[in-house]
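Tokens in:
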């Protein structure tokens, strides 16, 4: 059996300054730091004495969120490049306005999973491959209780893989995401995969 708690990193500076997130290494905002701390407090209260392993994207905004959570659970996050956000190539370090003006139009002959926003950007298929490899790896490990701290596109792909496991119907099945959202997945003794909670933002306002 597996219990997986997924946390989308809290408010980052790029959420407030009109810049692209992606692989640009933004810090959390002051509000984001407080939100991450609240998530840690809430999870500590909810998890109680259960032992969790924490995996996080190595980008600052996710790692800082993970460190705040981990400080309440007395564990050390394991940073994984595989959990980074979708790589937008040349858009990294650029503004959202620049990105919108530079996006490539999608040719009808190119399916959504292979479309790239820019020539050097990562496709959804490539994101799928790295997220699935990460998920397959942790599911083979003995740890039953896992926390994953990552980014919007990455977690949306993880949720999709959790439920469908292939890209056959990707264009018709999507999951949402929100900064600071907490989601809970589980796999029972029969291997049945369940999403128990999706993008719950009440944790960022937790009060003891």
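Residues out:
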């Amino acid at each position: 059996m597996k219990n997986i708690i997924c946390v989308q990193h809290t408010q980052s500076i790029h959420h407030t300054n009109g810049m692209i997130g992606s692989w640009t290494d933004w810090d959390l905002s002051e509000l984001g730091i407080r939100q991450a701390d609240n998530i840690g407090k809430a999870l500590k209260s909810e998890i109680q004495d259960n032992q969790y392993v924490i995996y996080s994207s190595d980008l600052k905004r996710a790692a800082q969120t993970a460190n705040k959570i981990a400080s309440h659970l007395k564990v050390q996050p394991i940073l994984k490049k595989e959990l980074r956000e979708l790589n937008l190539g040349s858009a990294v370090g650029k503004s959202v306005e620049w990105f919108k003006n530079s996006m490539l139009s999608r040719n009808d002959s190119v399916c959504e999973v292979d479309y790239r926003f820019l020539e050097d950007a990562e496709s959804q298929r490539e994101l799928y491959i790295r997220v699935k490899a990460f998920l397959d790896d942790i599911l083979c490990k003995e740890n039953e209780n896992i926390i994953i701290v990552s980014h919007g596109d990455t977690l949306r792909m993880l949720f999709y893989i959790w439920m469908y496991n292939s890209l056959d119907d990707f264009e018709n099945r999507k999951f949402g995401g929100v900064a600071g959202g907490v989601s809970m997945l589980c796999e029972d003794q029969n291997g049945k995969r369940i999403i128990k909670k999706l993008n719950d933002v009440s944790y960022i306002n937790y009060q003891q």
